[in-house]
Design brief:
Layout: H1 2-21, H2 27-35, E1 39-44, H3 51-62, E2 72-77, H4 84-89, E3 99-102, H5 106-113, E4 125-130, E5 136-141, H6 149-154, E6 158-162, H7 168-178, E7 184-188, H8 193-202, E8 207-211, H9 217-221, E9 225-230, H10 244-247, H11 251-261, E10 269-273, H12 278-293, H13 295-303, E11 312-313, H14 314-324, H15 329-338
Parallel strand pairs: 1-2, 1-3, 6-7
Antiparallel strand pairs: 3-10, 4-10, 4-11, 5-8, 5-9
């Protein structure tokens, strides 16, 4: 006991001395002091009403309470080039961790393959993580007569829409055109998925490819659509449609598909500027991960008809993106041709 007391004396003396001269506060306290009373911005790279908008707003409603200092959030929509405009806007915004951007990861694929005029290298931004992986499907409107994959292959023209050539809808449509010979005609320039849905109902488009959660519930319930295939390993409940990788007839095509489909693992990504201080970056990554597990967040997601499946941490998302940039030039060339 006396030995223990003796060993504690130097430590206690050092602690007292440290308090007297002002030892730096823990990083957590610094982060809390920074965010306390502040308003952070959630910048969503799409117009209101679509899936990305819904997921961005969902996160903004809950993430603040998991960040030290508990900042409030405001949401801004900045549509353009499938969220690329929002990512680019970070260059002109504060790089202190108060601006978070949500965008379509199709931009990452376009950057990696050198297509689509995406001049941002996504290893130059910091990923906070992805709030959910994606269950992507392609479907046709019920009046088109397209019910199966075979029907899609036999169709003379399939009209699909997209916000830009970096959008997930465009990439999915390009895949089946370039790798499988489906006669897809893509109409570019819709502000978001809400506008594409109106075009489908009017008969201007034959269908769409996108996240299953973004399909209106009544379309599914009332049999307004026929799902021809899915572009993710995960299959939505009640959906019995073939996986595109299983439809490929040779290993070369499968290798190309694996590169392209990897973005589905980080399909709801959130990023901040590379210049954000390390302690705040760690706090924001921890906050996104904690939010993804928060019962209140999950209940809100269920109420909003938004499935949270396979969230990915910031560190893992950063590693996935870094790995994509290390793909061999030969395979990248084939992947670029597949989504052109």
């Amino acid at each position: 006991e006396s030995l223990m007391k003796k060993s504690l004396i130097p430590a206690l003396s050092a602690l007292a001395l440290g308090l007297a001269i002002g030892v730096p506060a823990p990083a957590h306290a610094d982060v809390a002091d920074f965010y306390k009373g502040k308003t952070a911005r959630m910048v969503i790279g799409f117009s209101p009403g679509g899936g990305f908008d819904a997921y961005g707003r969902l996160l903004a409603r809950h993430m603040g309470k998991h960040i030290p200092g508990k900042p409030s959030f405001v949401v801004n929509n900045l549509p353009g080039a499938s969220g690329l405009k929002a990512v680019q806007s970070m260059m002109a915004q504060p790089k202190d961790g108060t601006v978070i951007v949500h965008f379509n990861p199709g931009n990452v694929l376009k950057s990696v393959t050198g297509t689509g005029n995406v001049k941002i290298k996504f290893t130059d931004v910091n990923f906070l993580g992805s709030i959910s992986s994606d269950m992507r499907v392609c479907y046709a409107w019920h009046t088109t007569g397209i019910k199966t994959w075979e029907d899609l292959l036999a169709r003379k023209v399939v009209n699909l829409g997209a916000t830009s050539k970096t959008s997930g809808s465009y990439l999915d449509g390009a895949l089946i055109r370039n790798l499988f010979g489906v006669k897809v005609k893509q109409i570019i320039g819709y502000p978001g998925s809400a506008e594409q849905r109106i075009a489908i109902e009017r008969g201007e488009l034959d269908g769409d490819c996108g996240s299953y959660e973004s399909i209106p519930e009544n379309w599914v319930k009332d049999g307004k659509i026929n799902i021809t295939h899915r572009n993710s390993k995960l299959s939505p409940e009640g959906v019995n449609a073939p996986y595109i990788l299983d439809l490929a007839k040779d290993e070369d095509t499968k290798s190309v598909l694996r590169v392209i489909l990897s973005i589905n693992d980080i399909f709801r990504p959130f990023v901040v500027a590379k210049e954000v201080p390390a302690d705040r970056l760690m706090a924001l990554r921890a906050a996104l991960w904690a939010t993804a597990k928060d019962p209140a967040f999950l209940a809100d997601a269920e109420k909003s008809k938004r499935t949270i499946t396979g969230p990915v941490s910031g560190e893992d998302a950063q590693a996935i993106v870094a790995g994509m940039y290390k793909t061999t030039p030969e395979l990248l060339k084939k992947a670029a041709a597949a989504v052109k």
